[in-house]
Amino acid sequence: MNKADNIKMWGDKPYKSLNYFLREKFGEKVFKISLDAGFSCPNRDGTISKGGCIFCSERGSGDFAGNRNYSIAKQFKDIKEMMNKKWKEGKYIAYFQAYTNTYAPVEVLREKYNEALNEEGVVGIAIATRPDCLSKEVLDLIEEFSKKTYVWVELGLQTVSDKTAKVINRGYDLSVFENAVRNLRKRNIDVVVHVIFGLPGENIEDMLNTIRYISKIDIQGVKLHLLHLMENTPLVNLYKDGKLHFMEKDQYVDLVCEAIAMLPESIVIHRLTGDAPRDLLIGPLWSLKKWEVLNSIHKKMFTCNLHQGLYFYTNNTK
Questions:
Q1: How far is CA 63 from the centre of its chain?
Q2: Cα–Cα distance, 38 to 100 (Å, whole number)
Q3: CA-based nearest residue to 308, from 8, 11, 5
Q4: 3-state secondary structure of 275
Q5: DSSP code of 70?
């Protein structure tokens, strides 16, 4: 794909991808091994709510993670073997993905994290959790692991709007998120933030406001997701009531391109669109063609001479 000479590149992309970052850091290909450690979530078990976030699947957003009925070691082995069919060599990030991966006694967390870290070739641990599940004891534990391996913590912000947060039953307000980021960064732990485009009631400006917000705080990575409507989620009720409208592909592509240009060059872009199981997805169905979406994003950025940091550094946020 042709590009203009004035586009800044990170490898073959006009943004700092996770693949680029990990290759730079470790000197070779690094894969994520998605694990289900068998935890629950306070937004599901009644501590905060029993409904969970309205978009979250029955597997706690871990639909492509390992089988929670197996040990961490077996999950790791099974997924590693599958990965190695495509890539013969590389190192691994043990990704605790499903549900809330700090929502257990510290002794249990230590055992699970250690089991993953002891697998051959593991160079880091990624922990997906909620900002309201980071007690001092848990933070101390994560800091302990960060001193012997690379660690990042993923927080599901989704939107900067507390109004939308109530609609999606996120279960915490923005101040809780901000406190969690501060506490993690005090311990020099990298923070990766999840953002969802297409949440009910939000327009393009609302979504860009979330990008403006995260571009100015001390985070190290971001995951941009398209809202997926899946079977057996509370979001289905809003859809049936006509209160949820799917984004069109071109609209999403334009939005992602602008978001990338608004983000500073220091932030690693872990994801540009999410995955949903084909048998559960109600819509938007165009999202199933993930590589077409990614190719459209890259083509748009090259065509429009866009690259990460362009609007951030020129203050041209439109």
A1: 14
A2: 9
A3: 8
A4: coil
A5: S
- From CA 73, how far away is CA 118, in angstroms rounded? 9
Per residue in 92-104, pLDDT tens?
Answer: 999 999 889 999 9
What tokens does 192 get? Answer: 């990766």
CA neighbor of 47 nearest in space, from 99, 2, 83: 99
Q: Are 269 and 315 in contact (CB under 8 A)?
A: no
Q: Please give the backbone phi and psi of residue 235, each rounded to the nearest 5 degrees, phi first.
A: -60, -25
In this prediction, residues 252-265 reach a mean pLDDT of 98
Could you give the residue ranges of the DSSP H alpha helices within 45-130?
72-83, 106-117
Q: How far is CA 4 from CA 9, 14, 46, 301, 304, in A?
A: 10, 11, 53, 10, 9
3-state secondary structure at position 174: helix
Q: Does pLDDT of 312 surpass 70?
A: yes
Region 226-245 average pLDDT: 88
Predicted confidence at residue 6, as pLDDT, reads 77
| Residue 244, pLDDT score | 87
DSSP-derived secondary structure for 233-267: STHHHHHHTT---PPPHHHHHHHHHHHHHHS-TTS
Contacts of 241 (CB under 8 A, 6+ apart): none
Query: Pairing mode, if any, of strands 281-283 and 229-230?
Result: antiparallel
Q: Is the peptide bond before 284 cis (omega within 30 degrees of 0)?
A: yes
Rounded to whole angstroms, the Cα distance separating 84 from 87 reads 5
pLDDT band, residue 53 (cuts 50/70/90): confident
Question: 149: Cβ–Cβ under 8 A, 6 or more apart, which residues?
Answer: 117, 122, 123, 124, 125
CA-CA distance, 183 to 43, in Å (whole number)? 22
